[in-house]
Amino acid sequence: MLVILISLLSLSRSDISGSNTIRQFFSSLVSLQGIQKNLNMDCLSSTSTDNAYLCFFPQFALANIRTPFFILNSAYDVYQFHHILVPPSSDPGGHWSRCKSDPGGCNATQIATLQGLRSGMLTSLRQFKSKPEAGMFINSCFAHCQSELQDTWFAPNSPSIDNKKIAEVVGDWYFERGAAVEIDCAYPCDSTCRNLIPIDKNGFAGA
Ligand SMILES: *[C@@H]1O[C@H](CO)[C@@H](O)[C@H](O)[C@H]1NC(C)=O
Predict the structure, then answer these.
(1) 84, 22 in Cβ contact below 8 A?
(2) Which residue from 20, 104, 147, 203 has the least number of CB within 10 angstroms?
(3) How many domains does the chain have?
(4) Ligand 1 mean position to 53 CA, how many Å?
């Protein structure tokens, strides 16, 4: 029953230069691996052949998944930020480098762009939020994965929303103990974050 999905919820958006780098990238990945035939049938039948690869993504596939699922994602997912919103190809001058490595280094325009990433994600999630079996934890931390580290999952100072850590909200959902939908206020309101921002030797963030 438990499915935890992380990331790639904002696939349909363009990057800051107006191109859609990530769609092209994943469209080639789906054809390279020949995985289209294994994608969700219900999603495929409601999508045109040219766009069938979109069914690879939670944003499009989720609506057709019948198994109850819990969505865990950061509203400022650093993978989405660094590879979908501001991929290196969209910022050849490196004007976003400081902001990418530290949200405190972002100027007002960049923060406004990041708030757009969050609101796009919340819009994609709206359709799932009201379902009786909904489970969701969308915090406002700069991170990609938060489920595989004890420090972010369930430790005395783990990220929390309304005083609940990820493990507690997943537990409430799994054991049907009541509402299990937590959506954080916008950056920079959350003081419980562990911002986990990967940086490689070239200064670009990795996956
Ligand atoms: C913020 O930085 C971007 C990228 O360098 C720049 O285009 C923009 O004008 C800056 N905005 C402000 C308000 O300083």
Answers:
(1) yes
(2) 104
(3) 1
(4) 35
